[in-house]
Design goal:
By secondary structure, this protein is an alpha/beta fold. It has helices at 2-14, 127-138, 176-182, 217-234, 260-270, 280-289, 306-322, 333-339, 346-371, 384-397; strands at 20-25, 30-31, 36-44, 50-56, 69-73, 78-85, 91-95, 98-103, 111-115, 119-124, 158-164, 186-191, 197-203, 211-212, 215-216, 238-244, 248-255, 296-300, 324-330, 375-379.
């Protein structure tokens, strides 16, 4: 009896009427550090219902061997399966075959159906974050969390138009003549100065190899460089890029042509960390020779000790005499969380004290940079984009660039 049932199950599964169609849909590019959606479209062109287990061969970078989806398809039914992937490295990701294991209503046998579906998708700096922060930075209606609305200091800006007063406008901008004519409160609106140069400068040395939640500090800097370049271009400024370590990497002069953002994106995609110390004298020479005119330089680097800062401070001061320099470096959030844990024994008191001294030294670095007239941003890696945008908007609102 069992043999007869097995034979019947085999006839149901392996006859010519069993047909499946599978299509995998991928975005043109994946965004680094974000969840990217992958869609599988499965169609049962058979006259029988099928129970399916679907195993998609994911790129080796994800190191996942337990991925599977199960579903029940009626005859001639089409279903869609979606799942998310979060890449943590830039580069090309190769998808393999789609394997489908089919069973009939009897369920004694299982048939494997393999669809060779090799596909490659590149992982670029986060375009998703770039678009999200663009919306948040330019949204004048809602007060979204993170991006601060900066008050203009003075009126060293180009006149744009006269508009009706709304809550939050600077009362010093009231146009009393227009108010008298219209019988309603009117204010002058000014636009920011345009065509200013904004450079993202990324330290590619070993100081930026430190990982945080799967991404290196350099990858956080790369994502933020794309974000700030896009916002600068949207504000009619010119965006540029410089990367360096012991030698010079990508150098893109500040511009705002139609394809300039894509040029920056492609350059960021190719950058890799180097296991060496950064040459800040090289940075100074590059800033002096390559960058024409006073510009805003957003330097993404990291200092783990006051000694490391003191070694490069003379060069930073020289760069700051030529341009408006903003040094962006990172807070070690794991040490901060560790220092806030309660001490349960004597050794814990010692380790917590050392951790707090380390955090205090980071804060002292900020004060030392400010003492020499250098703008500084100390930020957690996950808040890098928000804090960098806020600093850029602050400097523009104060008329410093």
């Amino acid at each position: 009896m069992a043999a007869a049932i097995s034979i019947a199950d085999g006839i149901l599964l392996f006859n010519k009427n069993i047909r499946l169609k599978v299509r995998r849909r991928l975005p043109k590019i994946f965004s680094l550090g974000d969840e990217n959606q992958v869609t599988l479209e499965i169609t049962n062109d058979s006259p029988r219902a099928l129970d399916l287990e679907i195993i998609d061969e994911l790129p080796v970078q994800f190191q996942r061997r337990d991925f599977s989806e199960t579903l029940h398809l009626q005859p001639h039914e089409e279903r869609t399966v979606s799942y998310g992937l979060t890449p943590m490295e830039r580069g090309e990701y190769d998808f393999g075959a789609v394997n489908v294991f089919m069973t009939s209503k009897i369920g004694l046998l299982q048939r494997r159906w393999r669809h060779d579906y090799a596909m490659t998708v590149p992982v670029y700096p986060s375009v998703i974050q770039m678009k999200n922060f663009e919306l948040r930075a330019f949204d004048r209606i809602t007060n979204q969390q993170g991006i601060k609305k900066m008050r203009r200091i003075g009126h060293s800006y180009e006149f744009e138009q006269i508009k009706t007063y709304v809550r939050g406008d600077d009362v010093r901008s009231v146009n009393w003549k227009a108010t008298g004519r219209r019988g309603a409160l009117m204010v002058n609106q000014y636009e920011d100065e345009r065509a200013q140069q904004v450079y993202s400068i990324i330290d590619k040395s070993r100081a930026m190899k430190m990982p945080f939640e799967g991404l290196s500090l350099m990858d956080y800097a790369i994502n933020t460089s794309l974000v700030i370049s896009n916002i600068a271009l949207q504000k009619f400024d010119k965006a540029g890029l410089i990367t360096f370590s012991d030698k010079l990497g990508a150098t893109i002069k500040a511009d705002r042509k139609a394809n300039h953002l894509n040029k920056i994106l492609q350059a960021l995609y190719r950058e890799r960390e180097r296991p060496v110390e950064a040459n800040y004298e090289l940075l100074y020479q590059t800033a002096r020779k390559l960058i024409k005119g006073r510009s805003l330089l957003m330097l993404y680097t990291n200092f783990e000790s006051m000694y490391a800062l003191d070694r490069v401070l003379p060069m930073l001061r020289r760069v700051n005499t030529l341009h408006l320099l903003v040094v962006v470096f990172f807070e070690n959030t794991e040490i901060r969380d560790f220092s806030e844990q309660p001490a349960e024994q004597l050794s814990d008191i010692y380790t917590r004290t050392v951790a707090r001294q380390f955090l205090s030294e980071k804060a002292a670095m900020v004060q030392k940079l400010k003492q020499y007239g250098i703008q500084a941003v100390l930020t957690a890696p996950e808040d890098l984009s928000v804090n960098t945008i806020n600093k850029y908007l602050e400097l523009k609102s104060r008329g410093l660039i």
